[in-house]
Amino acid sequence: MHFAKYAAALVAALSFSTSADAALLLGSTGSAANTVTDYSGPGAVSFDLDLEHLSPTTLRFVIEADDLLGPLSLNAIVRNLSGAALNGFYFNLQGISYLAAGSVTPTFGTLGGVTHGADAAGIAFASPEWAEFHFGNPLALANQTDWFLDTRGLAAGDTFAISAEVPEPSTVALLLPALCMASVMAARRRRKG
């Protein structure tokens, strides 16, 4: 008799624990040829973006209660299905900001550098990416880390957007020298320090 009560209590507890709220994808805008698959969970924004057309895609999320317990981790797999080379990529934020930068891992291309500020992250590839790259650590691999979003000051029900876009070729041409100069300056600082 007591076993049946404990079993029923355990089943009820598990059903409540698996229904935890998470950042909820409200939808995406952009080319209908681009597909978004959402894997977000409590405290984590995670998605795949399949780009058949290199036009901007914007994903809109709503904050749920469990997302406010700490920073929100962010990771994504961006697949290049367009047949064109990716020389760079941007993830821009609206309604939320980056708290900490994470990994960017190309599959076949070579990473030239990553820049980021409170609401933008820019990726430049030294050699083009033709297949896919990982933003953060979507596959939970060693030596890779997620990006983190700052939830301080937000409340359940607030919305934010992530815009994913391929920069114009002229923007990439300007970004690469700036990244190279930043690398040279960082190397000089390390040698002096």
UniProtKB/TrEMBL annotation:
The record, for InterPro entries, names: Ice-binding_C
Could you confirm whether the keyword Zinc appears in this record?
no
Q: What is this protein called?
A: PEP-CTERM sorting domain-containing protein
Q: Which residues form the signal peptide?
A: 1-22
Question: Which key words tag this protein in UniProt?
Answer: Signal
> Can you give the residue ranges of the Ice-binding protein C-terminal domain?
166-190
> Looking at the record's lineage, which domain of life comes first?
Bacteria
